[in-house]
Structures are given as structure tokens and as C-alpha cells.
Amino acid sequence: MNQQLTRSQRLSRLDVKASPYLYISPFFILFFIVGLFPLVYTAWVSVHDWHLIGGQGEMVGLTNYIDVLQQPNFFKALRNTFSIFLLSSVPQVLAAIVIAYLLDTNLRAKTFWRMGVLLPYVVAPVAVSLIFAKIFADQSGLVNAVLEILGTSPIGWHADPFAAHVAIATMVNFRWTGYNALIFLAAMQAIPREIYEAAIIDGANRWRTFFSVTVPMLRPTIIFVVITSTIGGLQIFDEPRMFDTLGQGGADRQWMTLTMYIYELGWGAQKSFGRAAAVSWLLFLIIIAVGVINFLITRSISSSSSGKAGR
Amino acid sequence: MRAAIRNLAAVACVGALLTACSSGNGTTPDATQNGSASADPNEKVTLTVATFNEFGYEELFEEYMADNPNVTIEARKAATSNEARDNMNTRLAAGSGLADIEAIEIDWLTELMQYPDKFVDLADPELDGRWLDWKSAAVTTEDGKVIGYGTDIGPEAICYRADLFEKAGFPTDREEVADLLEGDWDTYFNVGKDFVAKSGGVAWFDSASATFQGMVNQVENPFENSDGTPIPLSENDEIKAIYDDIATAATDDNLSAGLAQWSEDWTNAFQTDKFATMLCPGWMLGVIEGNAQGVEGWDIANVFPGGGGNWGGSYLTVPEQGANHEQAKKLAAWLTAPEQQIKAFQAKGTFPSQVEALEDPALLDQTNAFFNDAPTGQILAERAKAIEVAPFKGPNYFALAQLVTDALNRLDVEGTDDAAGSWDKALEAYNALGLS
């Protein structure tokens, strides 16, 4: 029978089959242009001698990768990136959940508080960096002035790597905690109230409901926030670059992150796009690896906390 | 947080789009234009001019547009020379996006000299002898191509705090101070030791790396041989000797206030009497005045350790990728003429590099109220004439100077390493550059 389809029937069948692809194609076309193509092109650049101004040179295979892995600055940048990432992302996600929980309770002037936590996110990162540069200045900064009043010795915020990381992580946390808190808040409000009521009737206190109801129910959101802040945290650039006026991450590269290292390789002394592209690809692989690890950890943590008799 | 293209965003366009002044009072601009040789001199063109910091060109642009009604000038201004350099490199690489006239700084001129094809040849026999010899020699390639017209230079003198000198029982008069400091760098450091012993905690100079700048600008071949090949840092005895001198002065003798120039601490230190002298090229006077607002006692002495020294200075170039080469060249030549550069000097204190301008009464009569009415024009003109050496800055100058600056900052500002350890790290970083 179906050999004798009319023209309009054939059209409508094509419509059913092809239209969905057409509707989702804008995303994929856009992704191809701004996502996939740069990714592949960067890989192409990374196996060449490629000078910033001189342009494409010879194909050199993996030499750029080997060169970069032999530079001590690469590992310094890797260390700094992970240190700043952990110092920012971990407290940030924890604080965001707590803040969201507080905002979810019955507060007066709810909208005011909710807008308030988002305010730092509106401030441009460069402006944040300028303000925090004043606060964390080594000789004339606010923090060291307070420390002096308290009788402790001042901290070399721009000298000691760990202190520098803490200072930079503070800027990141200042900017992103409220943003993440709002995402958590939205997820919390989607948790059915009946579950809380049932828990309370069963005699659970506030802590118990938080750990046994709220956190497990937030699991997908936690995974989302952890992964986005991992990607963001490993690509951190503005804050460390603006941490001093030279923007190279300190004389000893105490706070040079991987993205700053990419910038230094490509636009700084070496002007080698080849090496910069190689580090970009290494960073890409690192982010994927960390993302997968994160995913596995968060999945097991939030599922086990629902299973465990709440600690 | 997300990787942002800071350098592009920061190049703020200060579009001075002043459409030619009302047509009613046109005072026959044609008279000034008769000499121009381009194909159609009255063709409407828009010229973009990219500068950084303060070139003092704002009023000159308006003047030029009034004289040439067919030309509209759009000004782009980057906040710092580093931003301008990043922008320049990126867009040179991309092959588009540069302004018709791009200002460049002497320190990164040499990396661009490797690619003379990217710039229009500006050689013009009529302009021979307009600039100080060493100024124009730096932008001339071996086969005689000229890629830039000189704008300003940075002849260095010593700025000092007369009030702090007085407290330490030192002479305060600028002539006496000049006599006191006359000599080489050892003299400067020795007087400093004497000063620090009596000053009660005030350091002699602000920053080890800034002092290094001053010393290195007197070395003929600081980091590279004249053919452009780098001198391995481990074999560079001249730089090592300078490094050791400054390291000793900064740490063992406590002459340094331990500040990185342009940092928050450095800016604040002007208000808190942290140091008594600093090397000051002409353009630094405005910076000091801004940072030290309300502080009385700054003065400037007509002296510089080891003779003369130049720090900084710029050129105007016409990139090949632009569309209006002829018109851009004409504007660049006009802007860098002595008469115009004198006006820029009066506006923003950029010290002219043109021979004729150095004799101009408008320059020589210039005094500076903030520096105790010092005859700054006269002093800087004499400092400019004392400059004997134009250091050779090859393609890797920027990178190599940064290594030693980093090393000095490690021991002077951050205090994380001693002199020997910090030098070793510089050698390590040199190897990482992979130049040889």
C-alpha cells in the first residue's frame, strides 16, 4: 500500500524525519564553528613551529609538547592552578550550599537577600582584582595593617606562593559563591516539601534533614556546579593576571596559572604559538580528566550520604 | 574568571570624532595644502591613530583636522605600553585590525624590526637630521628602510626629596646635589650608604629593578651581539656585574625600599616617605607629581650616574596593512615635526627627540612648580645631550631583560631568594627560553 503515497504524504514523512535535526542544527553548527574547529585547529598549530608574527613554520610533531613538559614553569603553573582551584572551588561549593539553605528558610525581605548574594557576580573581575590588590598589598595593604594591629607579623601576599593563592582564591570566591548559591537555591526549592514534612514527622532534626534530604536531593545540581566550577577554576586568568601590575604571575611565577602560561608562551618572551597550543591541549586533557574524577566522586558522595545513617 | 581577551577590551576607543569645525569660518585651508603630492589630496579619509599612555596629541589632532578638512582622525588610546604591545603583536599576526598610525615603544621596537615588511617605508630625504642620531638609527634597517618617526625620548636625571636630604644633613640645593652625585654608579651607591646611615629608616632609592633599567641603558650590548644573536646569560659578565652591584646595594647595604615600580605599594610609598631618590626620565615627572600629591620637597638634579641615560621613548609607524599609506605618512610626519612635538611637550611633558626642539625657548624656559620651580626643560635638554650610548636592543631584548628584572624582584621585593640563588633561577629561565 505504501508505494502509493501522495506527494503531501511523502513531504510530511520527510518532515517527521528531518525536522528534528533541522531544529537542533543551529547549536551544532555554532558549536562546530566556535567549539570544534578551534579545538582541532589548536591541535594542528601545536604540532608546528608557529611564531606569533612570523606565522606557520615547519611541522615538528610532538616537539612542542616535549619542550613544554621540560620547562619547570609548566609544572609551577600546574601546581598553582590546582592550588588556586582547590582553594576556591571547595570552600565555594560548600559555602554556596549553606548560603542557599539559609536563603531557603523563611526570611524577611527574601528578594533583598537573594539579590544581595548575586551582587559580587555583577562586578567586573578586573574591578574586583583592583580592589583586592589594594587589600592584599604587601606593605600598605589593609589585611597586613589589621594583622599588624593584632600583633602578628605581616604576610607576604605577593612573595609566598600559598599566601598568593589564598588571596587570589578569595577574589574568586567573592565573585562566584553567590552565583552558585542561587543555583543551589533554585534546586532546593524544587525539592518537594512533603519529603521534609515526612522527615520531621519521623523525628529528624534540622541537621538530619539537611544531610539526609537536602543534600541527596541536590545531587544533580551539585554535579553540575562542581563540573562548571572545575572548568572555570582550571581556566582562571583574570584574577591572577591582575594580581600585580606586571601581570606575569610574580617574579618567581608564584601565582602563574596555566592559562597565564599559555599567554606568556604565545604573546610573551617566546612568542611561540606552537608551544602555547600544546599547553592548551594539555590543559584540555587535564580538565577532562579532573572532570571525570569529580563526576565519580560527587556521584558516590551524594549517593552514599543518603544511604548512611546520617552522621 | 573565564579567560578574557583583556588586551583587546582595554584598548579603549576615545573617538575624537569632531566633524570639521563649522564650514562658515573656513580660513582657506587650501593654502597650507598646495605642497602635498598625493594623487587626490582632497579625498575624504579617516585616519586612526593608536597611542598609549599620554602622547599629548589631542589638541594637535584637532588642529590638523581644521587645517585638512578632508581628514578625520580617530584616536585610540591604550592605558599602558604593554597593552599596546600585546594589541600590536596580535593584530600584526592576524594581518588586520591595526590603526593607520601605530605608536610603538623603543623597548619592543626591535622585535618588530625583524619584520620590516609589515611596515611602510617612511624614509624621506627632507626629514634627514630632524631627530637625534641615535634616535633615528634605531628605526633604520640595514638597507636604509625607515619604519618609524621618533616622537619623544626619556633623558634621565635624578629626582630627590630635598626635605629628607635636609633631615639627614645633606645639601638640598639642586646644584649642590648634582655636585655630590657627580660620578659613576659607585658614587651614587656610596652617597646612598652615607644617607641611609643618617636617614633613620628612609631608603636611598625606590626599586632595584628600576635602578637596573638605568644602568642597563648605558651598556652598548646589554643582552645581544650587534648581529642580533643573544649573549648567553651565563657568559654575560657585564650584566652579571651590574646585577651584583645592585644586589649588594639593595640587600647588604639596605639602599632599596624594596618596591616594584607601578605596584600598589610603590604608589603608596610616595605618601609615606619610604625613599629619597629615584631615577627619573622626563615622563616620570608627571608620575611623581601624581603619586606624591601633597608631599613637598621633590626636586630634580642635573646629574645622572655614569653620564647620560635614556629610558623609553616612542615612534610612530605606518603598518602595511592600513589603507591610507600616503595620508598616514603625511600625518605622522606632521605630528613628529619639532613645532608639534613642542606643543605635545607643553601639554603632557613628553620630551622631544627632535634636534631643533631641544633648542626651542619654549622647552628651555619650562619650569616645574611641583619640583620646586626647577628648570626642568633646561635640565632634561642637557641630560639628553649627555647621552652617548644607545644600547643595542635585539629581537630578544624584552625577554632577556625580564629575566634579570625578575631575579632582582625576587630578592629586592619578595625576599624569597638570595642574590646567588635568584641568579641561578634566571639562568634556568634563560635555558627554558630555548634561544640557542
From TrEMBL, chain A:
Family listed: Belongs to the binding-protein-dependent transport system permease family.
InterPro entries: ABC_transporter_permease (IPR051393), MetI-like (IPR000515), MetI-like_sf (IPR035906)
Protein name as it appears in the record: ABC transporter permease
Species in which this protein is naturally found: Tessaracoccus lapidicaptus
Ranges annotated as spanning the membrane: 21-44, 82-103, 115-137, 217-237, 278-297
Compartments where found: Cell membrane
Membrane-topology annotation of the record: Multi-pass membrane protein
UniProt keywords, alphabetically: Cell membrane, Membrane, Transmembrane, Transmembrane helix, Transport
One of the GO biological process terms: transmembrane transport
Gene Ontology cellular component annotations, sorted alphabetically: plasma membrane
